[in-house]
Give the backbone structure.
Amino acid sequence: MKGMREIRTRIRAIKNTAQITRAMELVASSKMKRAQDNALGSRIYAYELADLLHALTRQVSLESIKHPFLQKRSVQHRGILLITPDKGLCGALNQNIVKAALQIEDSARFVVIGQKGMQTLSRTKKEVLGQFTCPDVITFKRVQEVVHFLVDAYQSAKIDTLEVIFPRFKNTLVQETVIRRLLPMTDFATELDRLYQWMGIDKCKLVQEERDFIIEPDGKTILERLPLLFLKKTIYQILLEAKASEHSARMVAMKGATDNAESLIEDLQLEYNKARQAGITQEIVEITASQNAQ
């Protein structure tokens, strides 16, 4: 009978856990849909902005632009923007992102968005220049704060490149850890190809636009102003991708935990029924034996 009590206790505990994971799954599911819509809907703007920059570079030589974002320089310290969730319970998402960061062996200085990444870098004694949180609602104001910090670090030569490590959203079940260089900006054609791939656009089917645009006041002036906007928009898009990945991974992880809990409850219930049946059979045997003894 003691075994039956232990089984009942385990069943109650697992049922309570299943209720919690089920509630977390539903919450993550509702947030996931909104985050996915934001990430997918914003990609087209990132594509159009990259296309505009690429068109400008065909008319204006980058060598004539003295913008710090467009100038290559010797690399003393790589700048890494590491984006992770603030919370856990999202499967292997955090582990995969942090693993990619820890594999960087060159001299690197980190700026971290998210508590999970900061915890790991603190334990491994990595050099961290700054830390920001990663709220569920990504606002452009918050992105501007991050970008201004990164630009100050880049222009003051604390970092000589800017690369970002983040989980790119592919679909609900797949989130791909990506390392992407943002600064210096030297190849917008490659950036366009990457956006084509992300958005599922077949480049071969696109109608190529060969006409030159009339640009006012002039291409050089516009090209000197667009890189900062492009950087802000790119980091904003990356944060939307990361948030969609986080909620998708958490929803899948909590659904898996709920399914495992329900499967374990079924196994324990079967074990309990067997133990209960064995106890009843034992009692019947004992009663029959006592009657025969009389």
